């Protein structure tokens, strides 16, 4: 997971949206719970925003230079797949 240390070089902001109680958001909640600390420790200046909203589909957003944003739907993904999606977004920047 060496890519995590260089995350803030390619991405300007990470946002994770999920429902507090929905089964569809369970993996996204667990991903944040297990990985937030590590990502922030490696990228202390990177905004990593967690947004909880009742009934929302789980999503992962990355904002790049010039305000360009990309979104990935996390519905039905496992924690490992969410980690892979974040890596793909990081490398796309």
UniProtKB/TrEMBL annotation:
GO terms for cellular component: mitochondrial inner membrane. It comes from the Eukaryota. Belongs to the complex I NDUFA2 subunit family. The keyword Transport applies. It is found in: Mitochondrion inner membrane. Disulfide bonds join 19-53. Residues 20-93 form the Ribosomal protein/NADH dehydrogenase domain. The keyword Secreted does not apply. It is a peripheral membrane protein. Keywords: Disulfide bond, Electron transport, Membrane, Mitochondrion, Mitochondrion inner membrane, Respiratory chain, Transport. This is Ribosomal protein/NADH dehydrogenase domain-containing protein. Accessory subunit of the mitochondrial membrane respiratory chain NADH dehydrogenase (Complex I), that is believed not to be involved in catalysis. Complex I functions in the transfer of electrons from NADH to the respiratory chain. The immediate electron acceptor for the enzyme is believed to be ubiquinone.
């Amino acid at each position: 997971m060496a890519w995590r240390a260089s995350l803030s070089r390619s991405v300007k902001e990470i946002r994770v949206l999920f429902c507090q109680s929905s089964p569809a958001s369970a993996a996204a909640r667990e991903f944040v719970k297990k990985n937030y600390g590590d990502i922030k420790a490696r990228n202390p200046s990177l905004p990593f925003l967690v947004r909880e909203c009742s009934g929302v589909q789980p999503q992962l957003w990355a904002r790049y230079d010039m305000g360009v944003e990309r979104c990935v739907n996390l519905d039905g993904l496992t924690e490992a797949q969410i980690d892979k999606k974040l890596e793909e977004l990081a490398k796309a920047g």
